[in-house]
Amino acid sequence: MSRLQYQQTINFPVVCAGVGVHSGARARIVMKPAAAGTGIRFRRTDIDGCEDIIARGDFVTEGQLGSTLTNEAGQSVATVEHLLAACAGVGVDNLIIEIDGPEVPIMDGSSAVYCELMLAAGLRQQRAFRRRIRILETVEVSDGVKRASLSPAPDDYLSIHAKIEFESRAIGTQQMALRMLPGMFARDIAFARTFGFAKDVEKLKSMGLARGGSLENAVVLDGDNIVNPEGLRSSDEFVRHKILDAVGDLMLAGAPIAGVYEARQPGHALNNKLVRALLEDTDAWCWESDADQLSAQPAASAAG
Questions:
Q1: 277: part of which helix (H) or strand (E)?
Q2: What is the pTM of this model?
Q3: Which residues, in sequence order, are CB contacts of 229 under 8 Å at separation 6+?
Q4: Which of 11, 71, 98, 115 sits most deeply, having the most CB atoms within 10 A of its CB?
């Protein structure tokens, strides 16, 4: 059997602040250790008596240009995906995230700052096995040419295969395949920034979006050209960011996924549609932890 997987939280609280890419509102977040079994929960400290906002797919109320979570009391927090991707990427299962505004700060448009903060705090192994969602049957969703699926994997990790196609020659066709092995996300994916097109900025702002967007927190394209003077962090930064988003969106399933995620032209709405389809199809997955394998070992030995 492979190395036993236990739940993890961080050793001590960490703090950061910044603006929301869509609201333009400044917010301060405090990430705090949480007990085993808590999961990832947001708390709006600017709302008196705010109930916890649970990071789970059925709490998603918006998924077009980011994932917004809303609890039963109607209290919400927006653009959670980059922070959730960092949690999934470094292996944090339990965390309380206090936030004093409506939207998670975009920071530099990637997950790098959130990964660095959690790793600087250190990860604390807890006395509870990590639960996984084991994919048993393929689940697939589509929206026009866009499609995404989850299918069984031979091991305990999430494998990702993503492909994107854009008319802009700065992007073109990019694809990438990887396995979410320990340490890989922080090294190879977390740095990839969100991106958008200059021609869409005024339209988004008229819709009340992108009010906090800038060259400091996004890669901006003007036709076939990249506007940012520093250029790209990698030639395939665009598909890497789509993978980053997918890792965060899939975290909303409620546990790490042992399966294969494949997508063409993925986006938040499509990923959330996939998570909801998975959770609704109870024959397509099961809960699993290393505790199950350990409890089965004596019986297997006796039978032998």
A1: helix 268-280
A2: 0.93
A3: 215
A4: 115
